[in-house]
Specification:
With 224 residues, this protein is an alpha/beta fold. The protein has eight helices and six strands.
Length: 224
């Protein structure tokens, strides 16, 4: 079976109060959406701020079922425009910003009247926020690994964190208190949690490693 066709590009995305040009990068696997009546599947990655790469296994849907799969990196990460000057600016990184970007993507690709969405983790939350507006073109929404209640999720995550070795907890707490989340020791301590509760496959799949590598280079969105 041949590999699906891959096309990619960047879409201008105008953000209020940002003077510089900002763009959203996207990549389509499979037939162009305009050439088929099958609704394309738009993939919303997690984080926020964790690039799309770890979700690339979904391209099997294009290869096996000829479903157009549309990946994109949300603004601030991956191959889209980065805005490190907005780090810790919670008033900037809003749900509405990412909803506007999604709408812009759908309109630019001319699929706003016929599309499906799969959202993973934060992406599922974004997808749900998009869906409750009842857009006419959304045919199906798949929510994967996403919390329905952030309070409950935080409680559960903190409980799991409390079960980490004492020295790991000490590093996490100290680095967060001192604003050193970008340090190597914080990264190593975080990976202990990830190895237990995010991905137990060893070695880690290359696509996931690539997402984490890019996150390490710029964690502006993720840490805000």
């Amino acid at each position: 079976m041949t590999s699906p066709r891959v096309t990619q590009g960047s879409i201008p995305f105008r953000i209020p109060n940002v003077d510089s040009e900002t763009k959203t990068w996207y990549q389509i696997h499979g037939p162009p959406p305009s050439s088929t009546t099958t609704p394309p599947l738009v993939v919303l990655h997690g984080g926020p701020g964790v690039p799309h790469n770890y979700l690339l296994p979904l391209t099997d849907l294009a290869r096996i079922h000829s479903i157009p799969i549309i990946f994109y990196d949300q603004i601030g990460c991956g191959k889209s425009t980065h805005l490190p000057s907005r780090k810790h600016d919670a008033g900037f990184w809003t749900v509405e910003l990412f909803l506007s970007e999604l709408d812009n993507l759908l309109t630019h690709l001319n699929i706003q009247e016929n599309y499906n969405i799969i959202g993973q983790s934060w992406g599922g939350m974004l997808g749900a926020c998009h869906a409750i507006r009842q857009p006419s073109g959304l045919k199906k929404l798949i929510i994967a690994n996403s919390p329905a209640d952030m309070g409950g999720w935080l409680e559960a995550a903190n409980r799991l964190r409390s079960q980490l070795p004492d020295d790991v907890q000490e590093v996490l707490n100290r680095c967060e208190r001192e604003g050193k989340e970008g340090s190597e020791e914080y990264e190593k301590a975080t990976m202990v949690f990830y190895d237990r509760h995010v991905c137990r496959v060893k070695p880690m799949p290359p696509d996931l490693e690539e997402s984490f590598r890019q996150l390490k280079e710029d964690n502006t969105v993720y840490t805000t």
